[in-house]
Amino acid sequence: MKKSRFGFLREIRSNGSAYLLVVPAAIYTLVFGYFTLPYMLIAFQKFNFKTGLFNSAWVGFDNFKFFFSSPRAWEVTFNTLKLNFLFIIVGTLAAMALAILFNELRSRWFSRITQSTILFPHFLSWVIVSYIIYSLLSTDYGILNRVLAFFHIDPVNWYASPQYWTWILTTAAVWKDLGMNLVIYLAAITGIDDSYYEAGRIDGATRWQLIRHITIPLMLPTISILTLLALGKIMYGSFDMIYAIVKDNGLLYPTVDVIDTYVFRSLRTIGNPAQAMAVGLYQSVVGFILVWGSNKIVKKVNPDHALF
Fold first, then answer.
1. Residue 308 domain-assigned (yes or no)
2. Cβ(99)–Cβ(119) under 8 Å?
3. pTM of the predicted model, to two decimals?
4. What is the extent of the structural domain holding 137?
5. Which end of the chain is least crowded, N or C, by CB within 10 Å?
6. What pLDDT does 92 receive?
7. Are 174 and 238 in contact, with CB atoms under 8 Å apart?
8. Distance CA 98, CA 86 (A)
9. 85 belongs to a structural domain
10. 58 - beta bridge partners?
11. In whole angstroms, what is the distance from residue 207 CA to residue 231 CA?
């Protein structure tokens, strides 16, 4: 016991700077990830700020009725799942394709400049992105409507046409996060042993055959892990994205209103934190089941691709 304790202290002493970098993330995780867990009880209470967490009246599952008895509950749940599935599928395919493309490029300076350009949107806030989208889609002065007018096509009132917004939001989300996903997939490709490619070339494999039989199969563990992690948040809508771009535009709710924006509006008007916590708990439980179930399926198919 003493030996292991001294070994741990020696490890901290020899790698102190590395552990120091972990401290802010560890504190953040403890405060917002673990110290807040008791507050899940609010979901089953008629929470009163005066009496506090452990003295508020218990109401069982009444707070869940607020969401599930709403006529729009299933619509916002469907929108949340639909948008997140599209973000995951389209984003993964686009990042994979670009990573393979950049790996095949022979001009390194062009590759680096292009990668930096694609990564730049990741550091923009959704508020800035919302103004970019508005400059494209504005009814009177938007670039897209000007292009349509050039071809003698009637302009579209984009902010009153919900049928277009599923793909508008998908495009915006993929464009913004593509650079970061590209970096991860490029790192996965870089980690592939060159001897595999050498053996393939000796056997007379073409570039496409090398990609198909070496690059893509060896990228699958990374793709699988990132997809499983993304599934954990599939019940959480991108509140910052949707609220920054759509705001309180009721005309677009049929296709873009997600659980988070719905709960935010309800909390803003009703002011009941217990009901918001009930929906948050529902999202977390479903997310856990999806990750656990998906990981179990992946583990049966190929244990090496599983998350845990």
1. no
2. no
3. 0.84
4. 70-271
5. N
6. 93
7. no
8. 18
9. yes
10. 45
11. 33
| Ramachandran area for residue 209 (φ above 0: left; ψ -120 to 50: alpha; else beta) | alpha
Ranges in the chain, pLDDT < 50: 1
Looking up tokens 């991860």, which residue turns up?
A: 184
Of 14, 38, 35, 13, the closest CA to residue 26 belongs to: 35
Query: Residue 119: which CATH number?
Result: 1.10.3720.10
Strand, helix or coil for residue 45: strand
Of residues 111, 98, 87, 295, the one with CA closest to residue 189: 98
Contact (CB, 8 A) for 171 and 182: no
Radius of gyration of the chain (CA): 24
Half-sphere exposure in the Cβ direction for 193 (13 Å, CA): 4
Tell me how far apart the alpha carbons of residues 74 and 46 are, in angstroms, rounded to a whole number.
24
Rounded distance, CA 306 to CA 295, Å?
A: 6
Q: Strands (DSSP E) along the chain, which ranges?
A: 45-46, 57-58
pLDDT tens-digit map of 51-93: 888 888 888 888 888 888 888 888 988 999 999 999 999 999 9
Question: Sign (positive/negative) of CA torsion 61, 62, 66, 69?
Answer: positive
- For tokens 């999806």, name the residue: 290
Residue 115: predicted pLDDT: 83
Helix (H, G, I), strand (E, B) or coil at 101: helix
Q: How far apart are CA 92 and CA 30, in angstroms?
A: 31
Q: Which tokens go with 30?
A: 């403890």
In a domain, 207, yes or no: yes
Average pLDDT taken over every residue of the chain: 87
Tell me which H or E stretch contains 58.
strand 57-58
Closest listed residue to residue 279, CA positions, set 130, 57, 117, 70: 70
Vertex 56, ends 52 and 60: CA angle to 5°?
A: 140
In a domain, 187, yes or no: yes
Domain count, the chain: 1
Amino acid at 170: T
